[in-house]
Amino acid sequence: MITTALKKIFGSRNDRELKRIGKMVKSINELEASYDALSDDDLRAKTGEFRGRITAGATLDQLLPERARAVWGLNAKFFPDSPYSPCPSGRRGLTQ
């Protein structure tokens, strides 16, 4: 009975995890328009930019939304007719 009440107040562990990942998915999707406008060369240049930011002290988690959007942008260019959209929540869970 106490655990049921606590779950109703705080949510289950799964609910909290989905809420946390949902925020990451939202931040990745917000970058869609700006990354879709980039050319292939601009997307390739992002690798060097990311490396520079990492050497400057940024963590991989801080760069995750931009890294994911860059990869998905390339995926969309190479496989434009793919019926599958990226599953950011699943990929995010695998990187944890």
Q: Please tell me what the overall shape is.
A: elongated
* Helix and strand element order: HHHHHH
Q: What is the first-to-last residue Cα distance?
A: 32 Å
Query: Which stretches are low in confidence, meaning pLDDT under 50 for 5 or more residues running?
Result: none
How many separate structural domains?
1
DSSP strand (E) fraction? Answer: under 5%
Q: What is the overall number of helices?
A: 6
Q: How confident is the prediction overall: mean pLDDT? A: 80
Q: Which structural class is indicated by helix and strand composition? A: mainly alpha
Rg from Cα? 17 Å
Largest sheet: none
Helix percentage range: over 70%
Number of strands: 0
Spell out the blueprint of helices and strands:
Elements (H helix, E strand, L loop, with lengths): L1 H9 L2 H18 L1 H5 L3 H16 L4 H19 L9 H8 L1
Helix pairs in contact: 2-5, 2-6, 4-5
Describe this structure in words.
The chain has 96 residues and is mainly alpha-helical. The two termini are 32 Å apart. The protein is built from 6 helices and no strands. The chain has one domain. It has helices spanning 2-10, 13-30, 32-36, 40-55, 60-78, 88-95.
Features:
mainly alpha, 0% strand, 96 residues, single chain
Summarize the structure.
With 96 residues, this protein is an all-alpha fold. It has helices at residues 2-10, 13-30, 32-36, 40-55, 60-78, 88-95.
